[in-house]
Specification:
With 125 residues, this protein is mostly helical. Helix content is 51%, strand content 8%. A two-stranded antiparallel ribbon has the order 1-2. α1 packs across α2 and α3 packs across α4.
Length: 125
């Protein structure tokens, strides 16, 4: 009688950490997809929390339903125009902060007035 193979379960975070440390192509793609993934989650959460269909949300945004589907799937990096549209139509606060990875001692800090871009529309109550 054949014996069953034993499998080892490795936690997701360990696999991810290993891939990020050893696979530069994977690491580059993850960095590229960060914004799209964050926007996808925010848009999906907004829509489902309010019981909206993709079509209803698309109508609110002045978009077509397939555009919302691609945005929710994280398939596209949204443009500043799209982020502004989301902010104004949905009352969302979007902040983009640009900071150096490793600020070197002795260098003047980047002027904070130019490192944070906020797109905001007050929520309608």
């Amino acid at each position: 009688m054949p014996t069953a193979k034993r499998t080892t379960t490795v936690p997701h975070d360990e696999v991810l950490a290993d891939l990020l440390a050893t696979n530069s192509a994977f690491r580059t793609e993850c960095e590229r997809a960060k914004l799209a993934s964050a926007i996808a989650l925010a848009v999906f959460t907004y829509r489902t929390d309010r019981g909206l269909s993709q079509r209803a949300l698309a109508d609110m945004l002045g978009m077509r339903q397939p555009q919302v589907a691609r945005m929710e799937a994280g398939e596209v990096n949204p443009t500043m125009d799209t982020l502004t549209r989301l902010s104004k139509a949905l009352g969302l606060h979007v902040t983009i902060r640009i900071t150096p990875d490793d600020p070197s001692p002795g260098l003047a800090p980047i002027d904070s007035a130019f490192t944070t871009v906020t797109v905001a529309q007050p929520a309608i109550t």
